[in-house]
Amino acid sequence: MIEVIDVTKTYGKKDQTFTALKNITFTIPDGASVAIVGKSGSGKSTLMHAMSGLDRPQEGQVVIDGEDILKLNAKKVDEFRARKIGFIFQSFFVQANESVSDNVSLPLEIAGVARSERKQKIAAALSSVDLTEKVANKAKNLSGGQKQRLAVARAIVNEPQIIFADEPTGNLDSVTGQKVEDMLFSYNKEKGVTLVIVTHDADLAEKCDIQINVIDGEIASINKKGSN
Amino acid sequence: MKLIDVVRRAGRSLRQAKVRTLLTSLAIGVGAFTITLSLAGGQGGRDYANAIVSANTDRREIAVSKPIQTNASNGVKEYDPSGSSAPAAQSFGDNLNEKDIEKLRTFNHVESVTPGYSPTVNYITTNGQKKYVVQSVSSYTDAVKLSFAAGDAKNLGDNGIILNEEYVKALGFGDAKSAIGKTVAIGATRQASLATGAPEDKEFSYVVKAVTSESGLAFRAQGSLLVSEPAVKTLYDFVSQGTPAYNQFFIASVMLTDQQYAKEAKAEIEKAGYTAQTAEDLLGVVNTFINVLLGVLLGFGALAVLTSVFGIVNTQYISVLERTQQIGLMKALGMRRRDVGRLFIFEAGWIGFIGGAIGSGLAILAGTIANPIISKQLDLNGIHLLIFDPFQVAGVIVMLVIIAILAGVFPSRKASKLDPIEALRTE
User: Fold this and answer.
1) pLDDT-based confidence at residue A179 (cuts at 50, 70, 90)
2) What is the value of ipTM here, to two decimals?
3) A135 contact B CB<8A
4) Residue A83 with chain B: CB contacts under 8 Å
5) Cα(B137)–Cα(B187) distance, rounded to whole angstroms?
6) Nearest residue, CB atoms, B336 vs list A78, A95, A102
7) Res A94 pLDDT > 70
8) Which residues contact B125 (CB under 8 A, 6 or more apart)?
9) Cα nearest neighbour of B6 on chain A
10) pLDDT > 90 fraction of chain B, expressed in percent and rounded
11) Is B257 helix (H, G, I), strand (E, B) or coil?
12) Which fold has domain A2-224?
């Protein structure tokens, strides 16, 4: 369960402060798929950064598994991200010059997984995104859709509890975007992993269990599937 | 993150930028090359000096003489027509006499004292050959390590002689081997016969026991004819008895019971008013010279390394800027600041290692090729002047890795401080 309690994030100094997030409070049950929807500049990315321990809001709590991650020290937050979180970005951020397998290996190395276990985990992750035969290829030789599938494999390889996806289909055409969406949702359903998608794509948001609408750093509405 | 994974990733990043890595490494390689060659030269030079000294002297041996008295200390003297103020033919005041020799024998740890006999002789000849001028006749001592073309010095006896190759040819023996066992004669002149007072000529016969070949190391005995100590004394007595030079020695060789007493004995002898020089003293002078030269060369090497440090800082700094997104991603995925810093530190370390290995490797290659050439040019008879000590080479590489790592500290701090949110902003 993810509990976001009264989170406020401001930028800048005294005279020129900009409030990116204002008293945000909501709860996400384990295994849910959540869309954080809003225009660019609404604060939806900042919210995701706060929930994943990348950013530190000045006020509030982000309680994951009963632990407030905003109270952890830097080392513990890094450990938390390495063990429990998977990330997918709009621009993929795969390492072009590295092989597909080395790309997927990165989170395992960061989490300190033994070398003997890595190979099998990498193979499993790549097979679930249909990239098994590309294992030895350089990432730069993949198509856009393949790159994002590689990013999905990298996000799931260490069996995270929560996957954060920041506009995962924003740079893809509708067909390949659809494939990536399907992969994310089926993984969400099969493994019971909490999926948090930041998007302004209404169609994608529709497919999620919960939609959180963010306008100017405040929650405008929270819709749950079946409740409307 | 495990250290080994950080090191492997660092190596992989460098492989992805091969040309840049190689060029940066080459800068440090120049330093490594210079330093490795300098150290090899220093080592070789010291070894060579050591070899020369130990081939020509025994470490138990101390060369003793009287301090040289200069005119300045005595002041300028007025000429006296009666002759009493005229300097003697040789400045006998500066020489050792029998009393000195006896006194030296009484010092602690002294095994024997041999006066430096250097009789002036006229010629050497053999049956049916011409007479050839002889530079000097010296006594053979096993402190000098001679190399023999034929025979050896074991049974020199009272009438044996060691020739060098030049005399073998001149005396018509053909080659060194056929000279062994032949008889030669040395002619000497006594200035004033004890009986008649007239000059007296005499020939002394010797059997050739050995022929020395030229050596790159032995200088002391080269060019002179060697006979046993009693034999040279006989010659000396014949030539100089009855002259003012009799029993006046410019130098004496004091042999100690063990080389460990060299310093102690030297101090004692000097205290008694003599000048004493040990093998170590001789070596010290040469080594000081070598060390100064070595220091200059190492300075050049250090300068090259210093220059390359800026190359590494520059390369790594640009690399951090280029890989902002990669660093941001790694940090977002939970890589700790320390590990991100280490990644760049190790990359710098790898550059240092590659540069050091290339530079040292080329230095060893160049040295191996140059050694025979230098040896030939300087007539060292196959002695190598560049000696590569594996520990020294490894030490140079380790030192360069450390320097490269220090150079990588600044860029690596830049990398570890990067804010992942900023780094991953797509706009």
Assistant:
1) very high
2) 0.93
3) no
4) 334
5) 11
6) A78
7) yes
8) B131, B132, B171, B184, B185, B187
9) A109
10) 35
11) coil
12) Rossmann fold (3.40.50)
